[in-house]
Here is the input.
Amino acid sequence: MPQQPFFMQWFFGLPPELMTALATVLGFALLGDLNANQQNSLGNFLMLIAQVLETNATQQQLLQGNAQNQQLADMQRSIDELRAELARLRGEITPPPPR
Here is the structure.
């Protein structure tokens, strides 16, 4: 994964409370001289960006989860095959006669 710019490292390293406070301050700062229609338009635009990010992240999580589930199923099949082979090998080995 490529190195993220300093701002991104800083932003994603913020504690939740500070990130929330920052969003609140930025929200009020964006109000400025915007009328209600402009605020509505900007708000809907930002919400659409957020929905795109959420949809993309959710799909990535789903695909990663599916891949992990498939890996677990493959490992379980391998374990079951090894157990069956071990049981077969044990059946072929006869214990030595008592002395």
User: Anything to note?
Assistant: Residues 55-90 form one domain. The radius of gyration is 29 Å. The mean pLDDT is 91.
